[in-house]
Design goal:
By secondary structure, the protein is mainly alpha-helical. The chain contains eight helices and no strands. Helix 3 crosses helix 4, helix 4 packs antiparallel against helix 5 and helix 5 runs antiparallel to helix 6.
């Protein structure tokens, strides 16, 4: 595998061919069937060395924008980051080690948050730190009750 191989050719066509080969009509449907998998693992499922996490997220954002479901995508990405960074769920005590783990999870999520949702993401992060969820909390998907409270869908 050579560096940058995933960017060769028409990667968008390749990405959607892989999604359809797996029986899904959209990248969103594929990702939502695996709500706790990190983007890297979604990319590996779709192509190993010729699909990458950035491409998967780019496709998810494009689909979310077209369907006016960007907030749901943002919640879903928070789920993925929490599962990756906090394998035992929300820490019981926010000591220095736990604070670092939470900061990594929230920082990673923030890095994937579209500009349109940056302020809302800051508010969610502040709320989670000010009033932590129950110890062990790990949302199973974007429709988690707490996430819906913190980051409700836009009203259209």
């Amino acid at each position: 595998m050579k560096e940058g191989h995933s960017w060769e050719g028409n990667w968008k066509v390749r990405l959607y061919e892989r999604v359809r080969e797996r029986g899904y009509d959209s990248l969103t449907a594929f990702a939502e069937a695996r709500p706790t998998l990190p983007l890297v693992e979604l990319a590996q499922e779709l192509g190993g060395d010729d699909v990458n996490a950035v491409q998967v997220f780019s496709g998810l954002v494009a689909e979310a924008e077209r369907s006016n479901r960007l907030t749901r995508l943002v919640r879903g990405q928070l789920v993925r980051e929490l599962w990756e960074s906090l394998p035992n769920g929300w820490p019981t005590v926010l000591d220095d080690d736990a604070r670092l783990e939470v900061a990594i999870a929230l920082g990673s999520w923030s890095a994937f948050t579209p500009v349109t949702h940056e302020e809302r993401a800051r508010q969610v992060m502040a709320a989670l730190l000010a009033t932590p969820p129950p110890p062990g909390w790990r949302p199973l998907g974007p429709d988690d009750e707490l996430l819906l409270t913190l980051l409700p869908d836009e009203t259209v």
